[in-house]
Amino acid sequence: MAGVARWWCSSVGARGAPSPAMEAGSWLPATSPWATRLVAAARTDCHDGRRCGKPATIPAAPPWMRGEKGRRAALRRFLQLLRVCSRWASYQVLTAFGVSKVLESGHSGYKAGDLVWGIIGCEEYTLVTNPESLFKISHPEFPLSYYTGVLGMPGLTAYAGFFDVAKPKKGEYVFVSAASGAVGQLVGQLAKITGCYVVGSAGSDEKVNLLKTKFGFDDAFNYKKEKDLNAALKRCFPDGIDIYFENVGGAMLDAVLLNMRLHGRVSMCGLISQYNLEQPEGVRNLFCIVTKRIRVEGFMVTEYFGTYSKFEEEMAGYLKKGKITYVEDVAEGIENVPAALIGIFYGRNIGKQLVAVARE
Amino acid sequence: MAGVARWWCSSVGARGAPSPAMEAGSWLPATSPWATRLVAAARTDCHDGRRCGKPATIPAAPPWMRGEKGRRAALRRFLQLLRVCSRWASYQVLTAFGVSKVLESGHSGYKAGDLVWGIIGCEEYTLVTNPESLFKISHPEFPLSYYTGVLGMPGLTAYAGFFDVAKPKKGEYVFVSAASGAVGQLVGQLAKITGCYVVGSAGSDEKVNLLKTKFGFDDAFNYKKEKDLNAALKRCFPDGIDIYFENVGGAMLDAVLLNMRLHGRVSMCGLISQYNLEQPEGVRNLFCIVTKRIRVEGFMVTEYFGTYSKFEEEMAGYLKKGKITYVEDVAEGIENVPAALIGIFYGRNIGKQLVAVARE
Fold it and tell me: Which of A196, A323, B56, B116 has the fewest CB atoms within 10 Å, i.e. is most exposed?
């Protein structure tokens, strides 16, 4: 649920009082001497401070909190939830990607009414001491929630990881794991725009259907129903894989390596199947990297923030022309945050999970 | 013992008779319609056909025959030896990198007396049907054995894997595993020429000493004496590793990943610790590739054969200026091939293992 939307930020700490972390000024690092008070917030009239404050801290649960099936995984999920709750209970302000409106600004680059997205505290009012870390929203004609997804961090992740890291060529074979997620669905569509053959994997038949009917993937499979991932990939890619957009790791990566083509590229975005394990699974087929001259490269979207404006314009163009479709799973109202959060651990969300705290 | 020298090739099959494989023309593929008879051989007077023929097939044992310590490893080595012997017993001609002299040629590019290196059959006389796969020797002023090493395939491997794959910059921190081997010793010296800080690992104190005193490594350690590879790397690289020239895989790769710096590169040349295992070890720390934006890239020297001339001139220059030192472990006489071969499995060789079948 990282990158969950906060429209808009909720109360200043629990019970409407400033949180200790906020008072200490430590909840968002000051990265520049010219950082000044920039208050991002909106619509304070829709909830009282207490009701808004508590749930809005929960969506910051990072992706490595997502688990697998089974008892131990369920226990881990529960423990992770406890950790989040304890963090909240200790008045530490959690952070997340969200969309906000500027109320006051002492920084010349921002004025009241500006719409911004970026990492800010899960609060109704947020004091931003490093405003240079935020991005202005140039296309308010789109749903603002898009700036937590297709036009925000996940969109730039897909764009940079596919184009800059994987360096695709027309006609290549592309495989995307966790393909119905916020990033995966975009990678698949960018690959189709590039003229590639694209297959995705997901964890339910409903998601697989979405990949094939809504996002235009050439093929897709439900990895939970496949007894042999290697065989599934051979079925979908009889001629092998040129590009693997890696979101999951573990057994899937091992199977993919066996099916890569010469000079294949693995754009390593995340290894979500491994985050909840006490010890990561070992990947055994690494010798394929030598024999097939594969390039495996990791990346972090933060290094591409400097290219955001170019990306925003290109992606906005794709959206306007209908070349990119984006699916969100929006939980309405702060009272639904717990259910939305728990649902993610079970893969119940279809598309990017958001919580609309308030709508303008 | 791959890439072992054959100075010069020995008898045409066992017992002086042409081998069945040779008669079938299958022991070296004809890759071009203009392939003609090119006979490479020399000094047939030093051994009788039978004595030369048998041992000269053994050195083609590939590097993945090298094992680890312990009983199971010893058993695997024995089984591997059996496989080699059975291949030899079946009259299949083994191939290896070696140096030869052209005796007759129907190809306009070669004439009698030319010195060549490349993959040819382990025979006294070799019928070459794809002469375009051989390289002419431009610097016979060096020991000809250098063309099985520093001026041949291992040299080009080190050069391409370090400069083209790892793309080093002056001042970077470089780690080389299997550092006293034919490739590793050259990578370390090329790194020093580039102005890098270089540490190598090897399997004996004698080899470690060689790395520090002969090849100019800044530091080195005996991996067999280290209880904790992660701690050893932290000791040698308190600021982390920029480039890992990977020759071994397994536990070493896992430890290296923990110690890589941001935007580090792993030039994956081989995973020799894994070749003899029934199932490769799993590498668990792959998430470091994401968080540290590491590039892991495999390569095969064959793809760089087109750049050989440029490499040969540059390496010859380094040798003449004394900037590169090269150490070989030469077994004299075909009767010492078995001992040399077995010694490799136990890491007894210091530097590139060769067998001098004949000297001119």
Answer: A323
